[in-house]
User: Which sequence fits this backbone?
């Protein structure tokens, strides 16, 4: 079974602090990795699609890196704000055109 | 574009009844995905279509579940007969190709009593 693992499962961060969390995946047969942001009572929204080893992507205060050789991706949030509170999902294509989601990191920003 | 449209948004039904969930993908998107969100299993893929053709339905829990995509702008997920354990939020998503970002609909919250 090919698994996508995310850590930590949940995280509480003080407003203004920066934070990061991890997505781990099997390093073989890599096609693409997605990051999604999922606010409570809404639907997931794509943040990044990453395909190349060494990719770094940025959207505002959020950025992500990718290491396909060792099988991990980091998501960073700089200067956390209350609106960053959400569950952050990573999802991985194992090469069979089927996106497999991790269980997510639930981020809560404390004002 | 209005995004991915799902209907109904909420459905409450009794055990044994047939339930049909509907999805309209974003115009021009070639791939369509049906997901189920539960507390126990998180977000799990049920089935996906490329160019209206079902590619992988290995996530469909059992024969009570079926999905169709008769044309590029419409898909249905049917549960017959429904059971209480089918209660979940069902999401439809579409993308311009298999590996590109997926755009999710608002979901249908299904409650089977």
Assistant:
């Amino acid at each position: 079974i090919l698994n996508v693992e995310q850590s930590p499962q949940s995280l509480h961060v003080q407003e203004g602090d920066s934070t990061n969390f991890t997505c781990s995946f099997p390093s073989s047969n890599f096609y693409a990795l997605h990051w999604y942001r999922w606010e409570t009572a809404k639907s997931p929204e794509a943040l990044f699609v990453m395909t190349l080893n060494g990719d770094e992507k940025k959207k505002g205060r959020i950025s992500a890196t990718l290491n396909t050789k060792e099988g991990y991706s980091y998501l960073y949030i700089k200067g956390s704000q209350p609106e960053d509170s959400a569950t952050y999902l990573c999802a991985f294509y194992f090469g069979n055109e089927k996106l497999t989601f991790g269980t997510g990191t639930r981020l809560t920003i404390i004002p | 574009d209005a995004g991915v449209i799902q209907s109904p948004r909420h459905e409450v039904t009794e055990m044994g009844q047939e339930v049909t969930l509907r999805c309209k993908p974003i115009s021009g998107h070639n791939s369509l995905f049906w997901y189920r969100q539960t507390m126990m299993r998180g977000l799990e893929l049920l089935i996906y279509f490329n160019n209206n053709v079902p590619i992988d339905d290995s996530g469909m829990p059992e024969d009570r579940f079926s999905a169709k995509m008769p044309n590029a702008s419409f898909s249905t997920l049917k549960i017959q007969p429904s059971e209480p354990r089918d209660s979940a939020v069902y999401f439809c998503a579409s993308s311009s190709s298999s590996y590109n970002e997926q755009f999710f609909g608002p979901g249908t919250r299904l409650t089977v009593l």
